């Protein structure tokens, strides 16, 4: 939980109407924020995004913004009260921020933050703020009807918006895997070069394919298929908005992945989420429980470790993959954040694997190894 700070110095600001911009949200922006709201409604927390540059100590940042999407009519929005509450949650003061504008739609509030600090100090302060965002703090922001938060430069936000609009689901390559659908037994033998690593049928899963680049097969010839279990919030964020939220970054010296989706979907890696009937949509039809796993491609030279499972399994996990070779560690070349949608990254995300079941996944035949 965040620390209790000293009472805020009362800084009087003008009324909401004084900051309203004459420029309405574009249709693309409105669509984007509507998708962020879906994330907020289902997870009960805001989608939080941060620009990668705040982690790069070689980049000078002249100006940083803190942008909020608030699910409230801007004419009913109480700006002073909102800012007092946000400052308390984020452990900043009213002197740290200045208001740029408020856009119509819901209430899209843009502020400049730490404007009086030197460039390196700005980046440090906002990096600490970002890394200090606990689940409890995100829940408190949601109570203020905040459905979206962005931290970073305004230039990076514009680029992120443009990049996000280019991220597309690629339905031509969507698949449902299992008997009666796309199905094969053993390693797939279709003549394609997947880096010398076998590719087995992910039975029981659906793939929502992502568009990565034109001439994909030529660009990623020789790259292996592997899986990376992820939190529900991350998978949902990609499906709805194309953005990576705060909890989807890969920290440390490597990313854990596996050639086995049976291993990658263990609940330690792939969160199991029970879906309320009111939130069932085109992705979650006819089911009560959902899991997300990222389908990824990685070049064999970036697999720095192929090792034993790390969950203490006492039986065979996947009949196609040895327990001794089921855990991969992918090289990140010391990057603080790895963007799975960057075509030049060491590892790319080619699809969102979804498993929707009526019964709890623990009762499925492929999950028997979870308990022994």
Structure report:
The protein is α+β, with helices and mostly antiparallel strands. Helices cover 23% and strands 22% of the residues. The protein is built from 9 helices and 14 strands. The chain has helices spanning 16-19, 27-43, 79-90, 119-131, 135-143, 154-166, 216-219, 232-240, 261-264; strands at 47-50, 65-70, 97-103, 107-113, 146-152, 175-176, 206-209, 224-229, 254-257, 273-274, 289-298, 303-307, 327-331, 347-357. The strands form 3 sheets. Strands 6, 7, 8, 10, 11 and 14 form a 6-stranded antiparallel β-sheet that branches. Strands 1-5-2-4-3 form a 5-stranded mixed β-sheet, sandwiched between helices. Helix 2 runs antiparallel to helix 8. The two termini are 36 Å apart.
């Amino acid at each position: 939980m965040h620390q209790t700070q000293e009472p805020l110095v009362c800084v009087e600001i003008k009324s909401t109407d004084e900051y309203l911009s004459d420029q309405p949200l574009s249709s693309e922006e409105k669509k984007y924020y509507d998708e962020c709201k879906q994330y907020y409604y289902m997870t009960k927390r805001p989608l939080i995004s941060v620009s990668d540059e705040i982690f790069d100590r070689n980049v000078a940042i002249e100006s940083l913004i803190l942008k909020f999407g608030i699910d409230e009519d801007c004419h009913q929005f109480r700006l002073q009260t909102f800012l007092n509450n946000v400052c308390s949650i984020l452990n900043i003061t009213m002197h740290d921020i200045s208001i740029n504008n408020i856009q119509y739609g819901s209430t899209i509030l843009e502020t400049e933050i730490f404007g009086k600090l030197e460039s390196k100090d700005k980046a440090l302060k906002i990096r600490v703020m970002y890394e200090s965002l606990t689940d409890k703090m995100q829940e408190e922001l949601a109570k203020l009807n905040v459905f979206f938060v962005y931290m970073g430069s305004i230039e990076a936000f514009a680029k992120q918006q443009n990049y996000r609009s280019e991220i597309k689901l690629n339905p031509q390559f969507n698949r449902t895997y299992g008997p009666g659908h796309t199905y094969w037994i053993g390693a797939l033998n279709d003549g394609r070069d997947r880096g010398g690593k076998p590719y087995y049928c992910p039975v029981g899963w659906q793939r929502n394919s992502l568009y990565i680049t034109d001439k994909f097969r030529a660009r990623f010839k020789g790259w292996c298929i592997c899986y990376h279990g992820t939190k529900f919030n991350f998978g949902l964020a990609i499906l709805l908005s194309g953005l990576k939220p705060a909890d989807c970054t890969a920290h440390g010296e490597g990313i854990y992945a596996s050639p086995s989706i049976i291993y990658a979907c263990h609940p330690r890696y792939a969160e199991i989420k029970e879906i309320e009937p009111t939130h069932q949509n085109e992705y979650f039809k006819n089911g009560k429980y959902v899991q997300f796993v990222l389908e990824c491609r990685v070049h064999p030279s970036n697999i720095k470790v192929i090792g034993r499972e790390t969950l203490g399994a006492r039986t065979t996990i996947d009949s196609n993959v040895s327990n001794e070779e089921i855990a991969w560690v992918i090289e990140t070349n010391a990057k603080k954040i790895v963007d799975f949608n960057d075509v030049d990254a060491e590892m790319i995300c080619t699809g969102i694997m979804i498993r929707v079941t009526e019964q709890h996944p623990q009762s499925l035949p492929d999950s028997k190894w979870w308990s022994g």
